[in-house]
Write a structure and sequence with these properties.
With about 70 residues, this protein is mainly alpha-helical. It is built from 1 helix and no strands. The protein is rod-shaped, with a radius of gyration of 32 Å. It starts with a helix and ends with a helix.
């Protein structure tokens, strides 16, 4: 009966080790996916802010050009 108990304990330890390896792998994949998502969001935000700043710059240029034209008349 001692041998049977040892075999069961050994099998349980092997299963636990396999499950721990799977959890570790899943955590790494989740972390990598999270980093990719954060990078995508940062790139999208950068594009949005860049577009807004370009639009504001263009509006200011048009406004100053219109003001100069109005002053010349």
């Amino acid at each position: 009966s001692g041998t049977q108990t040892g075999l069961k304990a050994s099998g349980a330890a092997a299963q636990l080790e396999a499950q721990m390896a799977q959890m570790h792998s899943a955590m790494r994949e989740t972390r990598a996916t999270s980093l990719r998502a954060a990078q995508t969001l940062a790139e999208s935000y950068t594009a949005l802010v860049s577009g807004v700043l370009i639009g504001m710059s263009d509006a200011l240029r048009q406004g100053s050009a219109a003001a100069k034209t109005t002053r010349k008349k």
